[in-house]
Amino acid sequence: LLLASFAVSSWSNQVSLYYQYYAQVVPFLIAGAISCFALPRWSQRIQLSLIATVLLGLLLGPFFYIGFGPPDRYASEILSSSGRVEARGLLTEIPGFASVSATEMLTPAVAWRPEIHPFPGPMMCGNSIGYFTPITRAVDYVLFEMENAPSGVEWSSTLMAWGFVLERRAAGIELWRLDSNNVAAEDCPSWEQQKRATLGD
Fold first, then answer.
1. Staple 122 to which of 3, 5, 26, 133, CB 3.0 to 4.6 Å?
2. Angle at 97 between CA 135 and CA 105, to 5 degrees
């Protein structure tokens, strides 16, 4: 029922197989549940069902993740790939306690930092409850991936206008550093206003 509800969801991420990369274990969970009802005793068949479920979840899940949607350079690429090595090298150039704004697929890579924002926040007010900032302001660094950036804006020129300079580019990812803060402080809609705009009254 849960998977069926995903199939008719109006949210594209739930419909996409890119975000359902552990769905392949469901048949084995069902088979294991049936076996438990049909065979009350702890039998070899039940053990094999449980083992198969765990192994397939651990081993096949990442491969399914690679197969659908745009590549997540931190969770979907082979560990030894040159692109991933370059991208991780780029991350080391961000100081430990710097504030960072990152596009969607890159936020997990900086999630341990004390201050992170989904791009283009907090330089721009949020347009959904996906991210919220009470007032626009700059961050120290922007970790930017063009293919996952919001459309409709020429982001390179916008970042330069905000006072960022391109520090380095690697594996399709750009690292921008704040050089002079030109982000105008602008009051954003309140959380309640933003929630109503997104979810309705």
1. 133
2. 70
Cβ atoms of residues 133 and 121 within 8 Å: yes
**Which residues does the chain have with pLDDT short of 50?**
65-80
Report which secondary-structure segment, H or E, holds 144.
strand 141-144
* Look-up of token digits 């080391």: 92
- Whether omega before 70 lies within 30 degrees of 0, making that bond cis, reads no
For the question of whether the overall pTM of this predicted structure is more than 0.70, the answer is no
Q: How many residues comprise the chain?
A: 201
Residue 170: partners with Cβ closer than 8 Å, 6 or more residues away: 86, 87, 89, 90
Q: For 90-145, what is each residue's pLDDT tens digit?
A: 888 999 889 999 988 788 778 788 899 999 989 998 776 677 888 999 999 999 88
Euclidean distance between CA atoms 121 and 129, whole angstroms: 12
Distance of CA 197 to the CA centre of its chain: 23
> Letter for the amino acid at 18?
Y
Q: How many helices (H) and strands (E) does the chain have?
A: 8, 5
